[in-house]
Amino acid sequence: MPNLVKEILSEIGIIELYPPQEEAIKANVLEGKNLLLSVPTAAGKTLIAMICAIKHVLERKGKVLYLLPLKALANEKYEEFKILEKIGIKVIISTGDFDNIEPYLINYDIIIATNEKADSIIRHKPSWINRISLIIADEIHLLGDGSRGPTLETLLTSLRLLNPESQIIGLSATIRNANEIAEWLKAVLVTSNWRPVPLKEGVFFKNNIIFKDGSILKINETSNDPIISLTIDSIRSGGQVLIFTGSRASAVSLAKRLSEPIRKLLKRDEERKLLELSSEILKIGERNRISEILSKLVSYGVAFHHAGLTYEHRRIIENAFRSSLIKCICATPTLAAGVNLPARRVIIHDYRRYEPGIGNVNISIMEEKQMAGRAGRPKYDKEGEAILLARSENERDFLFEEYILAEPERIWSRLGNSSSLRSHILAVIATGLAHYEEELIDFFSRTLFAFQYGLHSFKKRILEVLKMLIKENLVEERKEKLIATKFGKRVSELYIDPLSAIIIRDNLRKFNSNTTAIEYLILICKTPDMLGLPIRKKDLPILTKFIQNNFIPFEIPYEDTPEYISFLEKIKVALMLNDWIEEVHEDKIIEKFDVGPGDIYSFVENAKWLIYSSYELAKLFNYNEVINPLMKLYIRVENGVKEELIPLVTLKGIGRVRARALYSAGFKTIEDLKIASPSSLMKIPHIGPETVKLIKEQVSKL
Ligand SMILES: Nc1ncnc2c1ncn2[C@@H]1O[C@H](COP(=O)(O)OP(=O)(O)OP(=O)(O)O)[C@@H](O)[C@H]1O
Ligand SMILES: [Mg+2]
Question: What is the residue range of 428's domain?
């Protein structure tokens, strides 16, 4: 290894390689051999990827693409890789919108991106794509995920077709058919059960933990609530606890139950620091019931963590847990697949989880192992413990058989029956990866799906979808040559489902200057790219009333059909977005629609993307009457404001709350702000000296 690399490694605390890392080196990964590294969590997979990346950049002058499933993970990886800038390697994270071309990426050596973002980058065919010489697919077991696996699968297939000479490294948790996935990747497989901190898996029953190796640990019964005893036991001996629950509600209620007992264990200075953290939490975003509960619990040294929280709140909780300030996090399973957050003891409170439309289901062994794998903090603990809870002897035996002693499931490609197939077929044609039917089939014959199931029925399905794309004018067939139409090309770049694009195209045509905001919102919510919100009993009267009293620009499905329910789920989202742009307070939205601030944010992001896409398609089809309204709607959704606030929110530092405050005080336009005296602005609620300065700087240039 070059000295330069050794220096970097010692700087991040690496003196010698872990055994699985040595094996990877022995498998000639540094000589360019493809590798599938399927080892437990925290076994040091990143390092192998990093050493290879350095080699590619310094020796082959190649570009490296590092793929991850989540934005949070991409950020974490970027932070880790930034150290390479010291040796002149340029690292960047690509997180922009899907339609953003980001021409500067050409200047970087290592590009870190989510799978979806990378997939969208390819669709714009940047000139540097052929210079990628190393592809790293982290958390590659995602291939088996029904909703997101197909994107990763076609992305890898495209990248390998575009760069046949490139090296590929897959990083994965332990999976049963790792050899099959390796074979598909034409990679050497390195597997191992080795972990830097040993993991003891067990079941808790009647105050005893029975471990896999037969040993038994008696837990002090500090409470008649077993989960409290189990948590306190670990914290008392200096550990931290991560508890996985089946739902957001149970994560919150469990954190509440644990708060008093945990508070009693806090030291003085910890209490003080937690109070500071608690008030910091309230300062972020609009104050609402969720941030209030979170803030209160944090002052007790416990927190809950789920996708309904804002990104900022989640990061604060994670960091405070890492610095041992927060003693216990009650989380939904999203955390298991997320950032690096180890605990001495992991408790899997629920092995059943509610799936909309199905009911309660047992989580997969793979998921259980991912959660369990969070246990054991390198540098802090000698071992980690992962514990399932049993309420009866039968259940104890069941948990041992079904989880603790069981091997994770096989990974199966989900591409064949996936609705995303139409999107990928269009992309393959639009990016010129296939010009003829045979080439299209050839492309899909390289996928994991074809590798696992063969091509026979798959081919039929592909041709059916192709026919639909041709019928809807996304693809043209000229003398057997397949060409994406302007429409098809743009849809592929916009990264929306072709079906969404068809719905948008066919309905925007009917819209005119009288169309209201809610009608646009219903349109984007109707597309398959927008998820629905679950319907509760108390929603029904509101939704039904809305449907009866308003013009719905679509056919309404028959009542008592599954289609009707999913229609209502979409209407619910449209109504939520409408409240958002009518400036309803966040807290009210949270209560009315049973969502968290994090959900509002992700629905808003998604809506922006679909409104932008609608705008682009309106331009393409010359639907001139809707272009302006769509642009205004975009700004309103982005900021959560009524139309009259649009000029004010275009200023940096002015969100919906401040804009409303300015407007109410009579400052309604940029002109008003230009002539306003700083002292008069300072008197307005939510407007401090900093903001006034920011406003004045900006308006003086306009
Ligand atoms: N050889 C080594 N010596 C000391 N520390 C190491 C070594 N290799 C990796 N580490 C450290 O171990 C920790 C876990 O490594 P890494 O994030 O690569 O795990 P991983 O295998 O990707 O696990 P996960 O499945 O959780 O993503 C990191 O903090 C890393 O710095
Ligand atoms: Mg990792």
Answer: 421-494
